[in-house]
């Protein structure tokens, strides 16, 4: 049982460590995969906890100013699959650490 758990968790730990040692921003899709859920579920719960908000103008989910000020997230303007040019949420190293801890508190059995 313990060996199975180690086999499952070791790749996740290695990926997390690589991202934490990187200067790159990561997508919410990457964060979702890391915590073991889908992007839509992650974003829904982030909106419920006021980490993200939906913009009235285009419906884009963007981080609230408090989380931008803390250095957890930023926005980058990108062309999206639907042909619109809008802000997309990107997560910093500090934000990755925060979101992993936040998710674990919300879902302790995961």
List its salient traits:
5 helices; elongated; 110 residues; 3-stranded antiparallel beta sheet
Overall description:
Helix content is 51%, strand content 20%. It is built from five helices and five strands, in the order αβααββαββα. The strands form two sheets. A three-stranded antiparallel β-sheet has the order 1-5-4. Helix 2 packs across helix 3 (39-48). The longest helix is centred in the N-terminal third of the chain and has 19 residues, at 2-20. The model has no long low-confidence stretch (mean pLDDT 86).
Strand order of the largest sheet: 1-5-4
**Mean pLDDT across every amino acid position:** 86
As a whole number of angstroms, the C-alpha radius of gyration is 15 Å
Q: Please describe the biggest sheet, giving its number of strands, its sense, and whether it closes into a barrel.
A: 3 strands, antiparallel
């Amino acid at each position: 049982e313990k060996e199975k758990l180690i086999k499952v968790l070791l790749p996740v730990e290695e990926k997390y460590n690589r991202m934490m040692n990187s200067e790159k921003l990561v997508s919410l899709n990457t964060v979702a995969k890391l915590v073991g859920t889908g992007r839509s579920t992650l974003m829904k719960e982030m909106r419920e906890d006021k980490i993200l908000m939906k913009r009235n103008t285009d419906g884009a989910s963007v981080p609230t100013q408090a989380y931008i000020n803390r250095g957890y997230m930023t926005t980058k303007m990108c062309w999206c699959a639907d042909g619109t040019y809008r802000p997309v949420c990107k997560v910093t190293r500090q934000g990755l650490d925060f979101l992993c801890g936040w998710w674990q508190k919300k879902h302790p059995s995961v």
